[in-house]
Request: fold
Amino acid sequence: AQRVTQPEKLLSVFKGAPVELKCNYSYSGSPELFWYVQYSRQRLQLLLRHISRESIKGFTADLNKGETSFHLKKPFAQEEDSAMYYCAVGGTSYGKLTFGQGTILTVHP
Amino acid sequence: DAGVIQSPRHEVTEMGQEVTLRCKPISGHNSLFWYRQTMMRGLELLIYFNNNVPIDDSGMPEDRFSAKMPNASFSTLKIQPSEPRDSAVYFCASRGQGAGGLFFGSGTQLSVL
Reply:
């Protein structure tokens, strides 16, 4: 069964500080991994997907298959980064994704 | 494309009433998902469809919940009868072929009094 663990429910940092949101997964086979962001009272938006190895809004995430991790990082956090972040894993042909519990990131001025 | 469209945005009802949530997926997407979001449980997958056919409804909490997808452009999630513990945000999402991920609607905030 696929499973995603985000160990931190809440994460607080100051503006300009580095931030890392942790994500560990379990999946048999070759997983697809995603990070989604949800700003206050808005829909979930796709932030990153591991397959494209891109950087969005200064965020990056590296897939570590040995540690089964897909941590989200940003070197200098901004106040507008405050949001709920979800890590998700999938891989079936139907596109089903399993989400972690989410991490609420607060960036203080 | 306007994205995934959900209605209503907010629904307040009394315990025992029937509630119907609606979703229009992105045109051309062949998979549709219903999720429920709560503070306690995060995002839970309730049911998903592929090419209008229900694939897995094991996440539906009880028989009070049912979902249909009569055609490629419309799906409903029905709760009958509703209970206060059903209060949550219900999201619909769709996905096409390939590695694009899920696209979410704005959600329906359901409050059962």
About this structure: Chain B has a mean pLDDT of 93. The longest strand of chain B covers residues 42-50. The interface with chain A takes residues 31, 33, 35, 41-43, 45, 48, 50, 55-56, 91, 93, 95, 99-107 of chain B (CB under 8 Å). Chain B has no helices and eleven strands.
